[in-house]
Design goal:
Plays a role in the regulation of phosphate uptake. Belongs to the PhoU family. By secondary structure, the chain is mostly helical. Helices cover 83% and strands 0% of the residues. Helix 2 runs antiparallel to helix 3 and helix 4 runs antiparallel to helix 5.
Length: 240
C-alpha cells in the first residue's frame, strides 16, 4: 500500500493528469538510473585501465543529453497544458531542477572516463585508486538513495543524504592532502596524480548533485526550500 506522501501526486480527478505526472516521474528515474550506472562504470574503467569501457561511457553521454531535453520538454508541456498549482507545481519545478543535476552527474562521469583514457595511455598513477574506489562507492550510493527518496517522496531519507554530503567533503579533502603530499615527495608522478585529483574532484561534485536532489525532495514533500540551509535547520523542517 502506498503511503499518503507516495500517493500525493496521483489523486487527481483527471486520469490523464495522473498519467502525465507518473510518466514524468518514471522518465526522471530512468535518466537517474542511467547516470548512476555511468558513474559506476567510469570509476571501474579508471581503476581497471579499460579504455574501451571509457570510450563507451563518453559516447553514452549523448543519450543523457537527449533525455535531459526530452524531460525538459515534457515538464514544460505539462505546465502549459495542466497549469498545475501548489504541490503539483512544486513537483514539476523540482523535476526540472533535478534533471539539470542529473545531466551534470553525467558530465562528471564523462570527465572521469576522459581521465581513464589518459591514464590507460600514460600508465596508472602510483597512488589514489583506493580513495577513488571509496569515494566513488560513497557518492554513487548517495545518488541511488536520493533517487529512491524521490521515488518514495521520503524526506527523512533525503535528510540523511544531506548529512552524508559533509562526510564526502571530509573524505575528499583527506584524499587530496594524501595525494598532494605524495606528489611533493616524488615529483616524477605529478602528471598522473593530477589526473586522479581531477577524478576525485568530479566524484565530490557527484555527491553535491545527489545532495541537491535530496534538497528538492524535501521541498516537494514539506513545501520549504532548504537549499543553502544548514543541515540542522533542514532537520527542523523535516522533523515537524
Amino acid at each position: 500500500m502506498p503511503t499518503k506522501k507516495e500517493d500525493m501526486y496521483g489523486d487527481h480527478i483527471s486520469h490523464q493528469f495522473n498519467d502525465d505526472l507518473s510518466q514524468l516521474k518514471s522518465d526522471f528515474l530512468d535518466m537517474g538510473g542511467l547516470v548512476e550506472q555511468q558513474t559506476i562504470d567510469a570509476v571501474n574503467a579508471l581503476i581497471d585501465g579499460d579504455s574501451d569501457a571509457a570510450d563507451e561511457i563518453r559516447a553514452r553521454d549523448k543519450v543523457v543529453d537527449r533525455m535531459e531535453m526530452t524531460l525538459d520538454e515534457e515538464a514544460t508541456r505539462l505546465i502549459a497544458r495542466r497549469q498545475p498549482a501548489a504541490r503539483d507545481l512544486r513537483f514539476v519545478i523540482s523535476v526540472i531542477k533535478m534533471v539539470s543535476d542529473l545531466e551534470r552527474v553525467g558530465d562528471e562521469a564523462k570527465k572521469i572516463a576522459k581521465f581513464a583514457l589518459t591514464l590507460a595511455e600514460e600508465g596508472q598513477a602510483p597512488r589514489g585508486y583506493v580513495e577513488v574506489r571509496h569515494i566513488g562507492n560513497h557518492v554513487t550510493t548517495m545518488l541511488h538513495d536520493a533517487l529512491d527518496a524521490f521515488s518514495r517522496l521520503d524526506a527523512h531519507q533525503a535528510l540523511k543524504i544531506m548529512r552524508e554530503d559533509k562526510r564526502v567533503d571530509e573524505e575528499y579533502q583527506a584524499a587530496t592532502r594524501t595525494l598532494l603530499t605524495f606528489m611533493m615527495e616524488d615529483t616524477r608522478n605529478i602528471s598522473r596524480c593530477m589526473s586522479v585529483l581531477w577524478v576525485l574532484r568530479a566524484l565530490e561534485r557527484v555527491g553535491d548533485h545527489a545532495c541537491n536532489i535530496a534538497e528538492n525532495v524535501i521541498y516537494m514533500v514539506e513545501g520549504e526550500d532548504v537549499r543553502h540551509t544548514p543541515v540542522e535547520e533542514a532537520e527542523k523542517v523535516v522533523g515537524r
